[in-house]
Design goal:
The chain is 4% helix and 60% strand. The protein has 197 residues and is mainly beta. The two termini are 36 Å apart.
Length: 197
């Protein structure tokens, strides 16, 4: 069996963000404050990684308590009944030799699962001054919120709509290598509890 390496997200140096067009003239940005992941690679090869990522739906923050309350309501995420947003990724296509590749996986929101594509830039692996091995990844993608029944909108007098259907995903992630948690292919990776940041 090949040895596999477990990586954990460093929340101090990571951000899980998104933006949506508002009034069709500006972007509203937000992020999730509670998230966790199980990422397992063969050695340091992220093209072989298995990604299990999840966020606490109620931890969304757009900088406006009133707007956040609406997003958490049944009009959008319905966080009372759907506690988490999940992504399972395990299929990759290399784009070039500079660390760019496409990651395909299943995104589940409000109990609905759809296949999506994410553009990934691998920043490399480095050892920090304290001897910890870290890896950097930037992720971008676009989804149509209506594919997950996030359908609420309001018409404008000009003929447009208040909120765009398209949601742009933007994540900067720093991972910490866990050498003490090396597992083999026939072992089970224990998924930790959500971490609040």
């Amino acid at each position: 069996m090949s040895n596999k390496t477990k990586w954990n997200i460093d929340p101090i140096h990571s951000e899980i963000g998104f933006k949506v067009r508002h009034l069709m003239i500006t972007n509203v940005k937000g992020f999730f404050k509670e998230y966790e992941a199980s990422i397992v690679t063969t050695g340091d090869d992220f093209m072989t990684s298995e990604v299990d990522f999840w966020m606490n739906s109620a931890s969304i923050d757009t900088g406006s308590p009133d707007r956040d309350k609406h997003i958490k309501s049944p009009d959008f995420l319905d966080v009372e009944h759907f506690k988490q947003i999940n992504f399972l990724g395990n299929t990759y296509e290399q784009v070039d030799n500079d660390g760019s590749y496409e990651l395909y996986g299943d995104l589940t929101i409000k109990g609905i699962t759809k296949r999506i594509k994410l553009d990934v830039e691998f920043g490399g692996v480095m050892r920090d001054p304290w001897g910890t091995v870290k890896a950097g990844i930037t992720i971008n993608g676009k989804i149509n919120r209506k594919d997950w029944n996030l359908n609420w909108n309001a018409a404008l007098e000009t003929g447009g709509v208040l909120v765009s259907d398209e949601v742009a995903i933007s994540c900067d992630i720093q991972l910490v290598k866990s050498p003490e948690e090396v597992v083999t292919a026939d072992e089970v990776v224990v998924i930790p509890e959500l971490r609040k940041v």
